[in-house]
Write a structure and sequence with these properties.
This protein is of the alpha+beta class. The protein has five helices and twelve strands.
């Protein structure tokens, strides 16, 4: 019964490990497919005239995808290392058990060799009654059964040790493959980052490109507003699982999604280069590349997308018609449908399509009305 339980437990663990590995492979394959599709789009665009800003945005998107791929590879490498550690520990235990059993069997065989079967017959003839003989024979039978069992267990343990050694060799081979792939992707990422830096410098110096960039940002705002409007229509015709009053109570007390200087405030303002008036539906917070972006309150991830003019973007639904938007993310660490808690890291910023270097674009909405985020933040 105990052996069956161990076998069942082993099968359960194996199935779960296989499921985890399958999920990891699907996640990696998804990112690889996105990169391949983007590269195909880039090749297709070479057949037509492409605007300079499109080139910047395409490179920017590829940088983000490669960053995500690197994170997936590192997560899988760490999981692979954990499995290697577990296999090594199991192998040590199996080897020790095999060695101890082997020593026991060897001692028993040596004892039989030294004493010989004649000693057993002498012992049998020395008994004084049939009852004693029956007991002696029963005892000898148990010894022989135990010897056979030990020999069988010895063979099984030897087979198990051999199988675990093969598993360990395969795990180490996978780990080496992941390390090599990560090294290759890191080199490609640095190459793309260098290209993006060169292009962005030119964009920030060219008034025509700045104007085109602002037009794309306005289009991104319209898309965000349209998405929130659609979410509101669905919310009003369904049961809202989030309690909006809890989020409303955060006004003036909300933690910042990321600490940094506000380089572009909410509302209408004069552009420092173009000297024209523009409208910002949120605020832009300056940061260092790679800084963590945190959810300002508990919410459900409603939308994870990539937009021209905004880069990677996350929309959180906090219930009761309250939403927050996080744009210009280098890497997104959540998926649509996820429930996140206040303070949980949802992504990281990078030197993306912004004209101010690495920034976070942050918006607060109630229904289809947008608010000044600074009045919500403490």
């Amino acid at each position: 019964m105990g052996r069956l339980l161990k076998i069942g437990l082993g099968i359960f663990i194996l199935v779960n490990v296989m499921n985890v590995s399958s999920q990891e492979r699907r996640s990696l394959q998804k990112v690889r497919s996105e990169i391949q599709q983007l590269e195909a789009d880039l090749r297709a665009k070479e057949d037509r005239e492409k605007t300079f800003l499109e080139q910047v945005e395409d490179i920017d998107r590829e940088v983000g995808l490669r960053q995500k791929l690197l994170q997936e590879l590192e997560a899988q490498r760490q999981d692979q290392q954990r499995r290697i550690n577990e296999t090594e520990s199991s192998l040590r235990k199996a080897t020790d058990s095999y060695r101890n059993l082997k020593e026991l069997v060897v001692r028993r065989m040596v004892s039989i060799y030294k004493r010989g079967r004649i000693a057993d017959w002498e012992a049998l003839f020395s008994v004084r009654s049939l009852n004693q003989a029956a007991v002696w024979l029963k005892y000898q039978k148990r010894i022989m059964e135990n010897d056979r069992r030990n020999l069988r267990l010895l063979q099984e343990k030897e087979t198990a040790v051999h199988a675990q050694m093969q598993d360990l060799e395969r795990e180490l081979e996978k780990k080496e493959h992941l390390i090599l792939e990560k090294k290759t992707e890191t080199e490609k990422l640095e190459e793309k980052k260098s290209s993006r830096k060169k292009y962005l410098h030119q964009v920030r110096q060219d008034k025509k490109l700045i104007l085109e960039k602002l037009q794309r940002t306005r289009l991104a705002y319209k898309e965000i507003e349209g998405r929130i409007s659609r979410e509101e229509q669905k919310r009003k015709t369904s049961v809202d699982g989030m309690e909006g009053s809890r989020f409303a109570a955060l006004e003036g007390k909300m933690d910042w999604p990321m600490r940094g200087k506000v380089v572009s405030k909410y509302g209408r303002q004069k552009h420092p280069v173009l000297k024209t008036w523009t409208e910002n539906l949120g605020i832009d917070i300056q940061a260092d590349e790679g800084d963590a972006v945190r959810a300002v309150g508990r919410g459900k991830v409603k939308w994870v997308t990539w937009q021209r003019g905004m880069g990677n973007l996350v929309l959180l639904d906090h219930g009761g018609g309250y939403y927050t938007v996080y744009g210009h993310l280098e890497v997104v660490l959540v998926d649509s449908g996820d429930i996140v808690e206040g303070g949980e890291v949802i992504g990281r910023v990078g030197d993306r399509q912004s004209l101010h270097g690495p920034i976070l674009h942050f918006q607060v909405w109630n229904g289809t009305a947008h608010y000044n985020p600074e009045t919500w933040l403490r």
